[in-house]
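Quick illustration for those who missed Monday's session on complexes.
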Amino acid sequence: MKIILIGFMGAGKSSTAKMLGHLLRMPIIEMDDLVLQKTHARNMHEVFSRGGELLLRENEIAIAQEYASTDNHIVSTGAGVVLNKIVLDYLKMPSGKTIFLNASFQTIAERLVGDTERPLFQNIPEAKSLYHFRLPLYMKYADHIVEVDNKSVEEIAHEIAKTT
Ligand code: S3P
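Prediction with shikimate-3-phosphate bound:
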């Protein structure tokens, strides 16, 4: 079974994936890292400046397709994978379960204030409207929803482990 973590930037997908990998002794696929490897970019800003958001999305589709037959992994996705249903369709093969890490915008904004890594989190009003635009998509694609506000990474990982 593949465990696919989805959710907005700053929801804790990467740290939860690490903890879950440790708990369940399963390897992790970190999609953002694979995008950087594939595009030979040092960071997401370089990806965006070279090919715009489209370059990121094309690579996300290609990576998901490559891992479609890989089972027993934890996948930490980039927050925008819900924009292309095909990414989730591929990731859910051969047997995958999506877990939506649901953080309030307040929690996210507190965590990401001053973040310079994320091209799509450059200012609060724009990030907030992106958050509200995407929220129904995370809900739609979630097999399971975990509320993450005021919980530690350990608590969240244990909660997910129980559902598997
Ligand atoms: C993005 C989220 C980022 C990364 C890229 C675009 C998005 O991943 O894929 O900067 O579209 O929200 P994280 O969710 O790991 O921050």
